[in-house]
Amino acid sequence: xxxxxxxxxxxxxxxxxxxxxxxxxxxxxxxxxxxxxxxxxxxxxxxxxxxxxxxxxxxxxxxxxxxxxxxxxxxxxxxxxxxxxxxxxxxxxxxxxxxxxxxxxxxxxxxxxxxxxxxxxxxxxxxxxxxxxxxxxxxxxxxxxxxxxxxxxxxxxxxxxxxxxxxxxxxxxxxxxxxxxxxxxxxxxxxxxxxxxxxxxxxxxxxxxxxxxxxxxxxxxxxxxxxxxxxxxxxxxxxxxxxxxxxxxxxxxxxxxxxxxxxxxxxxxxxxxxxxxxxxxxxxxxxxxxxxxxxxxxxxxxxxxxxxxxxxxxxxxxxxxxxxxxxxxxxxxxxxxxxx
Length: 340
Ligand code: NAD
Ligand code: UFG
What we know:
Elements: E1 3-7, H1 12-23, E2 27-32, H2 41-49, E3 54-57, H3 63-72, E4 76-81, H4 88-93, H5 95-115, E5 120-126, H6 150-167, E6 173-179, E7 181-183, H7 202-210, E8 217-220, E9 232-233, E10 235-237, H8 238-254, E11 261-266, E12 272-273, H9 274-285, E13 291-294, H10 309-315, H11 323-337
Helix pairs in contact: 1-2, 1-8, 5-6, 9-11
The protein binds nicotinamide-adenine-dinucleotide and uridine-5'-diphosphate-4-deoxy-4-fluoro-alpha-D-galactose.
């Protein structure tokens, strides 16, 4: 069985990816410092797949912890690197935390991969690297624009670090995946998104409002240059997103003649406005969400959606889950975790 290290594997996207990896027959070792996730996620993964992945509680910024991990779990062939700090607002207030966590962790992994014969790394990047696009849908050849947050800058810098390392001849391959807006939860409601404190992102705020944990959802602006005035995003189901990682890993490890570095957008190719998403949630669940229109949120991109045709063509991957099903799954998960 091919052994894969998943950093940040108890997190939101990581846990869904561990499920898909195990279901595809990979053996998984997770490292996570539980700074933004919970050990019980392992139970959820085990309930779905029947397999409890190996778990190391540790920090990827600590190179000695990683050395011990590679020694204790010999034969790791690939890494999926999710572990990172990801709150845009927090990154503006605590830039050093973001630069240290997100960059040091990648440096450590890249440094150790040749030493322990790890062939490839899949890296979690974001459509945030494009900034405000000149046109939509946006493909991988679009220019990288200056980022407005330290978080976004760490993704840009990490992409450059990987590129430079590979062009310098490191004996590794990499696939960089630029996610658009991941939403939803596993249909089993065994795993999902677990935001700490007041959610900053749309879906957890919306589902918490539907569950009466929050009074009211604020729509940040209805005066954008879009058909209904609210911002437009490409909301991608987290299980669809997770599946792309399995395909990327297989391609990287098993296909000999692929480029050493490849970059893919992961999105649906459809732009949906914030108000349309709210409508989808209410239609799919029959639950009304109290909401009001508020001012714009500083730093928000007006509209961005993916041209995923490269991933469709080269990876043979495309999104399958309908947005209403995604909303139902998000709601089922929220109901499961809402304290009663
Ligand atoms: P998450 O916070 O749920 O998961 C990240 C996990 O990494 C958490 O479990 C956290 O405890 C762990 N972690 C953080 N720093 C660590 C460290 N130094 N050592 C060990 N573990 C550490 O986030 P997510 O939404 O699952 O995001 C996963 C990746 O995808 C991140 O790199 C994020 O930047 C990227 N991404 C996320 C989104 C999104 O909207 N969720 C969009 C684009 C890109
Ligand atoms: N929004 C609201 N009300 C809320 C929360 C969000 O109206 O309470 C709106 C935002 O203004 C935005 C849209 O919903 O127009 C989506 O906002 P999110 O915060 O959910 O997502 P973003 O597109 O701002 O950013 C997310 C992640 C970033 C990542 C980016 C691209 O937070 O880390 O997607 O992948 F970089």
